[in-house]
Write a structure and sequence with these properties.
4 helices, 8-stranded mixed sheet, globular
């Protein structure tokens, strides 16, 4: 799989607004796919964090009033967490919004495809960076639906080097896999 095939499969119209987030807090993330062969950038949060401690996630965070929209939120938060300077022109599309079940966020994920990245600099919200082989990672999908679980959303997991990706991040990855599969790019 090439970056060009990924771009073709994941390019969508960008509308940086959340529809109907009700009582939840609006947030956004930037899914960065880069390199050849393609990799995906994720972060591991420090265990000491109040919310999402120890979890694997995409760079991003909650919307603040000074942000013009959720795309600006994703770009600002990505710079804070990774040191990467991402332009709005690097963002090729977005996925469907995802709601966290425990922390009360509605997240709008944006997709960015870059030839390469360099000089990652972690802030206090990042314990480590995971630069994950894209195709092999998406093949680790497991559907963990428990018919006795009283959840409103399906539960998926992905794994990389003993790191479990679950929750909202896994639902975003599932959308990527579904888009690639439906466009015969996977």
């Amino acid at each position: 799989m090439t970056l060009e095939k990924i771009k073709n499969a994941l390019t969508t119209e960008i509308n940086p607004k959340i529809n109907n987030y009700r009582k939840n807090k609006p947030a956004s993330v930037l899914i960065i796919i880069y390199d050849s062969p393609p990799k995906i950038l994720m972060t591991k949060k420090p265990v000491s964090m109040m919310q999402h401690g120890g979890e694997i996630s995409f760079p991003g965070g909650k919307y603040v009033e000074s942000d013009s929209d959720l795309l600006e939120t994703a770009i600002r938060e990505t710079k804070e967490e990774t040191g990467l300077e991402i332009s709005k022109n690097d963002v090729i599309g977005q996925l469907n919004q995802v709601t966290t079940l425990n922390s009360g966020f509605t997240i709008l994920p944006f997709v960015c495809v870059l030839d390469r990245i360099s000089n990652l600099v972690a802030n206090s919200e990042v314990e480590t960076f995971l630069e994950i082989p894209f195709v092999t990672f998406l093949k680790t999908l497991e559907n963990d639906i428990d018919p006795n679980h009283n959840s409103i959303q399906e539960m998926y997991t992905f794994t990389f080097n003993n790191n479990l990706v679950w929750g909202a991040s896994a639902r975003m990855l599932k959308q990527i896999k579904d888009n690639l599969t439906s466009k015969n790019s996977f």
